[in-house]
Design goal:
The protein is an alpha+beta fold. It folds into 4 domains: 2-119, Ribonuclease H-like superfamily/Ribonuclease H (Nucleotidyltransferase, domain 5); 146-255, Taq DNA Polymerase, Chain T, domain 4 (Up-down Bundle), CATH 1.20.1060; 270-310 and 454-528, Alpha-Beta Plaits (2-Layer Sandwich); 312-451, DNA polymerase, domain 1. Helix content is 55%, strand content 9%. It has 22 helices and 12 strands. It has helices spanning 6-10, 21-30, 42-49, 57-65, 73-76, 91-118, 122-142, 148-173, 182-192, 211-216, 222-241, 284-290, 310-319, 322-329, 334-342, 352-367, 371-378, 382-395, 397-413, 434-470, 494-506, 525-528, and strands spanning 16-18, 39-41, 145-146, 258-260, 270-272, 293-294, 300-307, 415-417, 423-425, 476-480, 484-490, 517-522. A 4-stranded antiparallel sheet has the order 10-11-7-12. Strands 1-2 form a two-stranded parallel ribbon. A two-stranded antiparallel ribbon has the order 3-6. Helix 2 (21-30) links the parallel strand 1 and strand 2 (39-41). Helix 7 packs across helix 20, helix 13 packs across helix 19 (397-413) and helix 20 packs antiparallel against helix 21 (494-506). The longest helix is centred in the last third of the chain and has 37 residues, at 434-470. It is globular and about 70 Å long. The model has no long low-confidence stretch (mean pLDDT 95). The structure holds a DNA duplex.
DNA sequence: ATAAGCACGC
DNA sequence: GACGTACGTGCTTATA
């Protein structure tokens, strides 16, 4: 049946309009049908026009066409175990539903097209977001191989350790309880054991047992460390070790994440089912999980390429701050260089503590931190934190000026934008409520940085994908983790792809300072990173 | 089903 | 006196 349309789908001259085209492309690929020609995705168009709103078709139809589409529940039943599939729906109803869907989508296209011009996002849409749809579809369908046997073994080991830890915690607490229940844990630690004089409370008046609260109590009682370790291990086991093997597709033998191109209001991608953008790396045990991500077979190797300090480089570029630009031009370790300036010492004389503080401030700058936030993170008095921030702005006046002008721009225009003109609207930027306004101000600083970084890696992905296709390489791009790309590379192509990846990542957006890309290969994701 | 609290990533 | 660092996804528990 569908073969009748294969010619039209493949025709370069025919533009394809749809709501979530990546899904349609994936389904058609299943029937060996290629989709060529320009794309117009209404979901993504609306994501650029109003990034913070919803982008599902029902919402769009109601908002822009004043029309309520026939709910899918009318055909396949309410959500739950009794819900059927589209295949079991009577043909006439299927036809009505499908035609309405297509009709609405085409009407939405008519509404959104002029809006792309009015918001100055047409180039972003046509040159970045639409070409990226095909790239993501290909990465998803490619998938990544994991070593399930290894994970299953690791699971048994974790199981044992968790059981032992449980017993030890019960012994230290003088009784059994559900350690995974923050409510019960809070009662044990703070009511029964009295481990704090003024326990911090959550908004529902429970005792907070969050990581930073427990971290401060770590010297009060040995149970605290045990609980932190217990939390960390059960998290690894239930979220990754036990779950990933279940998600291996039986047809391909690989794991296929799904990238969402229209959820993060800054322009980043997100990943789910499973989320492959939050695979552990910080702890020793966590790294075991990365080892389970492997090349497709022994003729391939994994290659990871990441942007080094891309967000700070973008701040340096966008703010034009000469001191920070100089640091990057000289290829200095940016956190040490920052420490040298704020503590007014030579870079060789920067201590580990000075560097650690400077690093926290640099991250704080990206997120719009306060003196209180910095003091909490560095565990130093608020006044000291305030001094560090003052000194920072004095020694990097361009950064201070950039932050002020960005907030002023937001107040004036009601939005901020990235290098590639991606917008984020900040409706609370002129709020009389200081808390609400503060939140908008932090978004005003963060969104252009995080969003420009997203613009840049998206451009790199498109260019790399197209170059690999032109050169008919067997190697494939398989993962994106915000500032990192992972490739499954054929051994014979390693020396071919390395310079391509490096060049196209560096040149995606030209900055006034050097861009650095770190690359390495290995027999698993941990070795390659 | 949904919210809360927590932990993983960048 | 309250507030206090951006963006996500997903697990378990507790409650409706």
């Amino acid at each position: 049946m569908v073969e009748q349309f294969a010619g039209a789908f493949a025709d370069e001259r025919i533009e394809k309009t749809g709501q979530n085209l990546k899904y349609d492309i994936a389904v058609l690929k299943w029937y060996d049908i290629q989709v060529n020609g320009p794309l117009f995705d209404t979901m993504i168009a609306h994501y650029l026009i109003e990034p913070d709103l919803r982008h599902n078709m029902d919402f769009l139809a109601r908002t822009y066409l004043q029309y309520n589409p026939v709910p899918i529940e009318d055909l396949i039943g309410k959500k739950g175990k009794n819900q059927s599939g589209m295949r079991s729906v009577e043909l006439g109803a299927q036809k009505e539903y499908a035609c309405e869907d297509a009709d609405i989508t085409l009407q939405l296209r008519g509404v959104f097209e002029p809006m792309l011009d009015h918001t100055d996002t047409r180039a972003l849409f046509e040159e970045i977001e639409m070409p990226l749809v095909r790239v993501l579809a290909a990465m998803e369908s490619e998938g990544v191989k994991i070593d399930s046997e290894n994970l299953n073994q690791f699971s048994e080991q974790l199981e044992k350790e968790i059981r032992e830890m449980e017993q030890e915690i019960y012994r230290l607490a003088g009784g059994t309880f559900n350690i995974a229940s923050p409510k019960q844990l809070g009662e044990i630690l703070f009511d029964k054991m009295q481990l704090s004089d003024n326990p911090k409370q959550t908004k529902t008046k429970q005792h907070s047992t969050s990581e930073d609260v427990l971290q401060k109590l770590i010297n009060k009682h040995p149970i605290i460390q045990q609980i932190l370790d217990y939390r960390s291990l059960t998290k690894l086991k239930s979220t990754y070790v036990d779950t990933l093997p279940l998600l291996v597709n039986p047809r391909t033998g690989r794991i296929h994440t799904s990238y969402n191109q229209a959820v993060a209001s800054t322009g980043r991608l997100s990943s789910n089912n499973p989320n492959l953008q939050n695979i552990p790396i910080r702890t020793e045990r966590g790294r075991e999980i990365r080892k389970a991500f492997v090349p497709r077979n022994d003729r391939f190797t994994l290659l990871s390429a990441d942007y080094s300090q891309i967000e700070l480089r973008l701040i340096a570029h966008m703010s034009g701050d000469e001191a920070m630009k100089e640091a990057f031009r000289h290829g200095l370790d940016i956190h040490s260089a920052t420490a040298a300036r704020i503590y007014n010492v030579e870079i060789e004389d920067v201590t580990r503590e000075m560097r650690r503080n400077a690093k926290t401030v640099n991250f704080g700058i990206i997120y719009g931190i306060s003196a209180f936030g910095l003091s909490e993170r560095l565990n130093i008095p608020r006044k000291e934190a305030g001094d560090i921030i003052r000194q920072y702005f004095e020694r990097f006046p361009g950064i201070k000026k950039y932050m002020d002008t960005t907030i002023a721009f937001a107040r004036e225009n009601g939005y901020v934008e990235t290098i590639k003109k991606r917008r984020r609207y900040l409706r609370d930027i002129n709020s009389g409520n200081a808390v609400v306004r503060g939140f908008a101000e932090r978004n005003a600083i963060n969104a252009p940085i995080q969003g420009s970084s997203a613009d840049m890696i998206k451009i790199a992905m498109i260019n790399i994908f197209e170059e690999f296709n032109r050169k008919k390489l067997r190697s494939k791009m398989i993962l994106q983790v915000h500032d990192e790309l992972v490739f499954d590379v054929h051994q014979e192509e390693v020396e071919t792809v390395k310079p391509i990846i490096e060049r196209l990542m560096k040149s995606a957006i030209e900055l006034s300072i050097p861009v650095e890309v770190e690359m390495s290969t290995g027999s698993n994701w941990l070795e390659a990173h």
